[in-house]
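S1.2 Input.
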Amino acid sequence: MEPHRALVIEDAADVRLLLCEVLQKSGFEVWEAATGQRGLDRVDEVEPDLITLDLTLPDLDGIEVCRRLRTMTTAYIVVLTARLEEADRLVGLEVGADDYVTKPFSVLEFRARVAAMFRRPRTAATSEGRKPKTLRFGELAIDEESREVRLSGRLVDLTKIEFELLAILASNPRRVWERETLTRLVWRTEWPGNDHVIDVHIANLRRKLGDDARSGRWIRTVHGVGYRLGE
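S1.3 Output.
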């Protein structure tokens, strides 16, 4: 089995070296880039499975780099940022990042998050050994094999985590899924993380489905508990 490939986009040499060493020790083949443009240029060359992306780059805004990366690759994207403002975290996730880590970061936590990404099932159905299938809910169709979601025949562009969340909700649409359970199933870890991260991904998923928290046509909030799928 070939090792996973990682691309580290980071302008700070010391942080870039640390990330490369951590990922290499975790079994990755690692490439690096010190600027956003160089990182974008290397995507086709490297074909990475994982990208770590610093939001503060010397040439391009990290948010814009993340947006472009998501149009070029399905790799997991982990944003690293020293910006503590909640708005930056929300924007970073909205444009396609799968997770974020704030600087300074714990090497152990970083490794745990990356490992959790690669352990999680591709869909809720395949994790239980069932044959992938297309789940249909009115105008909403979720193809577990191609990992495509269509709404009224229109393809909906989802991140990996958004698809995982929707597939889990759709696997048992009558069930109310607790945030802690969703975290465990999506990231395949007991690390509790921050429940707000789930809320951010659900908000982005709703937006892409033309839904909102008040109407809850596709994803309904059960206050104090979690979420369920419902038309």
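S1.4 Remarks. The longest helix spans residues 195-208.
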